[in-house]
Here is the input.
Amino acid sequence: MPTIENEGEYEETSKGKGTSSSSTQKRQHRKRSRMYEDDGVEKLSKQIGDVAFAIQSLSKNQLDVNALYATVMKVEGFDEITLGDAFDHLVQNEMLTKAFMAKNANLRKIWVQNFVTQHYNRPTC
Here is the structure.
């Protein structure tokens, strides 16, 4: 006689193939449902990863206005108003800003001089 622990096993085997095939179908259905759920979770996880990557890329490419201001104001030979105008111009044009920030001090000074020549008839200090 089976023990109480094994009673569920005994009942399942004593019921025959008719019930075990229906329970097998239910288990297979549950497995298919889990596979679809796993696919959905995997797709969602990938999409969240893509969004996180896009946010990181945007934050890396964002203009650091404070760093730009400090860099422009360090250019020697120009008054504060001229450098402020150059800064305002750079803030409005991201590609110029990236190029300006990549240059060394001498090339930045030449850039500001060219900016003054092109935009103003203001003498330098």
In short: Residues 7-61 form one domain.
